[in-house]
Amino acid sequence: MSNANRKVIITCAVTGSAHVPSMSEYLPLTPEDIATQAIEAAEAGAAILHLHARNPSDGRPTPSPAVYRQFVPAIAQATDAVINITTGGSTRMTLDERLAYPRLAKPEMCSLNMGSMNFSLHPIAAKISSWKYDWEKDYVEGMEDMIFRNTFRDIKNILTEFADYGTRFEFECYDVGHLYNLAHFLDLGLLKPPFFIQSVFGILGGLGPDPENMMVMRTTADRLFGRDNYHFSILGAGKHQMSLVTMGAIMGGNVRVGLEDSVYVAKGVKARTNAEQVRKIRGILEALSFEIATPADARQMLGLKGADKVTL
């Protein structure tokens, strides 16, 4: 267990691609809303902003660089938070679509899912009686028969290409096997520490939200990489968000919150903004005597190239 006085990085995932507008009226959809909520989250204490784009007309996930450019530069201008652009996009996008904006922006960080997997929220469809947009119902129900693709070759090509940009990664690991996939690429010489491992719990298709699974991921990462060579972070989906990320911090990890991961801030209470979730976890962490990492701290801890070397 790490020293209680260490600094904890808060990542905020602002909108994502899995949740649909009918799940929460507060989910940011337009470039203006995404920018506003991201900036507020940074002001509340998020050192890293994990960003997806949505079609402003109906909230559908989009890989369009033109849409990204309507909000990412505004966020970068208003805050010094680390900009982290998804390479995951959504299960409906091709790899080239998912990489379209990251290739142009060459950000300090990108997310990278460490394997192909079933990834689904389809059981939620039965709980929604009224859909705001026509595309949503088929999108959510269709997840039952969709696979998120990231083959070994896909991952190798991303790592090789983005090494030329100086971009580092939030390695999203939804299962123990994803840690071994990460170790495989380390063995190939395509990675260098420190790694930022985002352990994901509670997504159907990945590890469940059992606290014991957190210990399995932590100890496995220790064996594969050595604790000094990586930074552990926790993502708890849905109702498991706050309890799991708090436990993760106590175990020596960092935390991720945001409306991509949960639309709630408490049981039965929807989060009106991403900043609400950031403020809540920050309060919990500070009550436990943890210090919150600044963007400068995060850059130093993760070995990032710096915002001045980005073409957002």
Task: Describe the model.
Keywords: Metal-binding, Transferase, Zinc. The structure is a single chain. The N and C termini lie far apart (38 Å). The chain has one domain: TIM Barrel (Alpha-Beta Barrel), CATH 3.20.20. Helix content is 37%, strand content 19%. Helix 1 packs parallel to helix 10 (274-287) and helix 7 (176-187) packs parallel to helix 8. It has helices spanning 31-44, 65-68, 72-78, 95-105, 134-142, 152-163, 176-187, 211-225, 241-250, 274-287, 295-302; strands at 7-8, 10-13, 48-51, 53-54, 61-62, 82-85, 109-113, 117-118, 147-148, 168-173, 195-201, 230-236, 254-257, 264-266, 269-270, 291-292. The protein is built from 11 helices and 16 strands. The strands form 5 sheets. Strands 2-3-6-7-10-11-12-13 form an 8-stranded parallel beta barrel, surrounded by 8 helices. Helix 7 links the parallel strand 10 (168-173) and strand 11. The chain is of the alpha/beta class and 312 residues long.
Tally of distinct domains: 1
Extract low-pLDDT stretches. none
Strand order of the largest sheet: 2-3-6-7-10-11-12-13
How far apart, in Å, are the first and last alpha carbons?
38 Å
Order of helices and strands: EEHEEEHHEHEEHEHEHEHEHEEEHEH
Number of helices: 11
Q: What is the CATH architecture annotation?
A: Alpha-Beta Barrel
Number of strands: 16
Largest beta sheet, briefly?
8 strands, parallel, barrel
- Silhouette: globular
The amount of beta strand, in percent, is 15-25%
CATH class designation? Alpha Beta
Cα Rg? 18 Å
Structural category: alpha/beta
Helix content: 25-40%
Organism: Pararobbsia silviterrae
Keywords: Metal-binding, Transferase, Zinc
Cofactor: Zn(2+)
Protein name: 3-keto-5-aminohexanoate cleavage protein
